[in-house]
Amino acid sequence: MKRVIMLLISVLYISGCSTHITDFSMISNKNVNLNKVDIDKLPQSKNVIGEDKKFVFLFIPTGVPSITNALNDAFDKTDTDIMTDVTLKSWYWYIPYIYGNAGWEVSGDAIKTRRNYQKVRINRSDLHFNLHTVISQIYIRRQNSFKGLIINSG
């Protein structure tokens, strides 16, 4: 009997909650131009879930979860910039004085409205060399432009 009571107390001591906050028809935290755009013809990803979560260790939180980070997570997963038919949830669970977790969850259909731009990778050593070359060229051109110029400092 003692074990059953201890088990019930332990289960009640671990608290948790998930709350449906709201639904959105469309949501984005990016600059998006929807003029002359037919959303139905754009590439879509169905049932995308973005999440931002933070931990609580002992009684110290490691940060505050945000909706913006949850949206960015969904957009980064699918390379999109708008979500439609969105459900926003807040959740947490906590074992007092031991460990816990809290976060935001955004779920819906993601749509890509912007064009693909090719990502360019630059090697650090190439960047240093090119920057050095550019600075050298600027210095040489300035030296040449000052030839014949008399400066009266006096």
Structural overview:
The chain has 154 residues and is α+β, with helices and mostly antiparallel strands. 31% of the residues lie in helices and 36% in strands. The protein has helices at residues 2-13, 67-78, 124-146, and strands at residues 15-27, 44-57, 60-61, 82-95, 99-111. Strands 1-4-5-2-3 form a five-stranded antiparallel beta sheet. A hairpin with a 2-residue loop joins strand 2 and strand 3. Residues 148-154 have low confidence and may be disordered.
- Element-level helix/strand string: HEEEHEEH
Number of beta strands: 5
Task: Bin the strand percentage.
Answer: 35-45%
Unreliable stretches (pLDDT < 50, length at least 5) are 148-154
Helix content: 25-40%
Determine the structural class based on helices, strands and strand pairing: alpha+beta
